[in-house]
Amino acid sequence: MDFPPARQRFYQEIHQPDEAIDLARAALYIAQEEYPPLDPEEYLNALDVMAAEVEERLPPERYPLRVIQALNRYLYEDLGYVGNAAQYYDPRNSYLNDVIERRRGIPITLSLVYLEVAKRVGFPMAGVGMPGHFLIRPTVADMDILIDPFHQGAVMFAEDCQERLSQVYGRSVELRPEFLQPVSNRQFLARMLTNLKMIYLNQEDLPRSLSMVERILMLFPDAPQEQRDRGILYYHLGRWPEASLDLEAYLDQVPTARDAKLIRNLLAQMSGS
């Protein structure tokens, strides 16, 4: 199948070593498929300009906490970036171009803006994919703190993460060490795409949901649940030959899956047996 140019650019960007993937550029290629006229260079330049303005605000001695304070003042006080809690599931919160233009987003996209500006001023950070909430952390040695870009760049410790996790789920949830581990660039992008996939599923926009799943599978070709979901979307879109291939492959990978009976019923229906 011929993919749109933005999809091809996304594919090229992610098919290199993980550490070489340009997160902002890849995220803009995701957005470019939704907004074909979008020029990624315009938004990459906007991030460069932001970083240059932060540079002017940095103190001579760049202690990590002072850099964080400068980033927070600039992004949240000067520019007015804010977590869009009122319209959390607006898809525009998940497209980097919209987030830069509207200065509002969800945890992962605000994290991306923060990460990219921090990287440009020589303060590298990494994403932390805590369940239900995305954070970032400096990669500076011996600095065991996290930053919450959705909440005005609040500085957090592990105990605060435990409290935030319980807030997200509305009940006490055990904070496991792996919840606070840095994510890879591919995992970061997959989480962005998963957010959009779920938003569009809830809107019953199956073609857009499918486009997100297709790109997740570009990142992680062997992800059985995504292959299943693509097969189910193909089924509902009337693309039964493709649906059958995906669902059979899913059962081959996970023959004892909890939904195996349902998947076999779908396959039987498509085969007419």
Automatic annotation (TrEMBL):
Belongs to the UPF0162 family. Pfam families: TPR_9, Transglut_core2. This is Tetratricopeptide repeat protein. Signal peptide: none annotated. It comes from the Bacteria. Residues 42-193 form the Protein SirB1 N-terminal domain.
